[in-house]
Design goal:
It is found in: Endomembrane system; Lysosome membrane. Keywords: Lysosome, Membrane, Transmembrane, Transmembrane helix, Transport. It is a multi-pass membrane protein. InterPro entries: Battenin_disease_Cln3 (IPR003492), Battenin_disease_Cln3_subgr (IPR018460), MFS_trans_sf (IPR036259). Its main location: membrane. The radius of gyration is 26 Å and the shape is globular. The chain is mainly alpha-helical. The protein has one domain: MFS general substrate transporter like domains (Growth Hormone, Chain: A), CATH 1.20.1250.20. The termini are far apart. Helix 6 runs antiparallel to helix 10 and helix 8 runs antiparallel to helix 16. It contains 17 helices and no strands.
Amino acid sequence: MDRNVTPTQLIQMSTEPLRSDGSELTPLQSNQEQGRSYGNLVAYWILGLCNNFGYVVMLSAAHDILSQNFHDNVEEESSSDSVSNTTRECNPTSTGAILLADILPSLAIKILAPFFPFLVHVRMLLVVLLAAVGFLLVALSTREWIAVLGVVCTSLGSGLGEVTLLSYSSIFDKDVISTWSSGTGAAGILGAGSYAGLTSVGLSAANSLLVMLIVPVIMAAVFWLLLRAPGSRTCTWKSIINRNDSSQVNSEQSPSSVPAPKLESSPVESPKPLTVVEKIKLIPPLFVFMIPLGLVYLFEYFINQGLFELIYFPDIWLNLHEQYRWLQVTYQIGVFLSRSSVNLFVVRKLWILAVLQFLNVIFFTFEAVYLFLPSIWIVFAAVLWEGLLGGAAYVNTFYRISTEVPFEKREFSMGITSLSDAIGIGLAGAIALPVHNILCQLPKPY
């Protein structure tokens, strides 16, 4: 047996692609492994899209769900025609109510799920079923509480899907975080855009939701047919020697007779599961990620669900309902662009994003109170900027966790951090309700 293998050769050879039995991969097999990696990146993009799709649609439809013609394919009479010139155009109930129904169940799931066994296939089955039931209940509802129950089901599915798939991502290449984030951003554009588009061409809000039942079907197909978890690999002394010079290996000698047995390793084992106490102790160090992310989401969802519906430009090509829908679409475009940017640049000072988003709150609050802007295009530009900040906070938070937190703690860290945005959104909905009522009592400034 050749004993003249240098440490440098050993390191170089041990980094070559291997089969699970420790033998070297052929170029074709290496390409297959690379193809699997690309497939997983695509799969996580689609899963992010499908997971957030229903959540986005419910928020885009919030103004319609709270109206009395949800099942009709006509727009409500413009508020400007039915109220006095001194009264603001307001829905009786703030869209913050739908926001609460769309986020509080998700928040509960995100808090509890990391502490339960990680049965990924069972969880994903529940995610798909809840998404489908949510669309059906809202679309077929005859009473408001049934529609709200459908929103709750959508929220449960989205929350469980996010905490599960983010935790599951810890065993894949770190770049799946980027494609997942990009997919969730695309859900914003496609969710808000498809809803606005379908209702614009004459479909009722209810029928538009029935069309979207295809989304949970796609999610199931991608998770169980396209996504492939990486397999374990074995690196043995025998395979290293064989790759160096198989002709010099004595077939009568076994690998166990070779000194330095530590060079022979067994398949990589999963890290020991964290105990409940260890998980609780891990939470405070994560505040550096959780607090900025939660604040950014608090500020932006207060704007979206507390102020958007109070910003109205009369006598333009869009009526009140359409203005709300297309502001949501513009926001989601910003989210998508920034969530797809982490491979270009990384924002490490997350608190800066929270400060900038708070400045947006001040700007949009002044506009909602005084209606001082001369053109809706200025609002569209500001909303795009708001979305860019929100998407950047999300993707950079989870990218930093995927690269800075130790592997054995990463799965739990991903899951528990995901609840910080839900807390921020829940607080935004709670604040939006009284603020909506206060602003609606103010007279028009013109």
